[in-house]
Amino acid sequence: MLARGELEIHGDDATFTARDAGGRALATPDVGTDNDLSAAIDILIGWVESFIDRPLDAVGHRVVHGGPDFSGPVILSAETLAALEGLTPLAPLHQPTSLAPVRELAARCPGLLQVACFDTAFHTSMPEDARMLPLPAALTNDGKLRRYGFHGLSYAHIAHRLVDLSPRLANGRTIVAHLGSGASLCALKSGRSIETTMGFSALDGLLMGTRCGQLDPGVLLYLSQAKGMDHDRIETLLYHESGLLGVSGRSADMRDLLKHRDDPAVTRALSLYLYRLKLEIGGLIAALGGADGLIFTAGIGENTPWVRERVCADLAWLGLRLDPDANTRNAPLISTPDSTVEVRIEPADEEIVIARSVRHLITRH
Question: What is the pTM assigned to this prediction?
Answer without folding.
Answer: 0.93
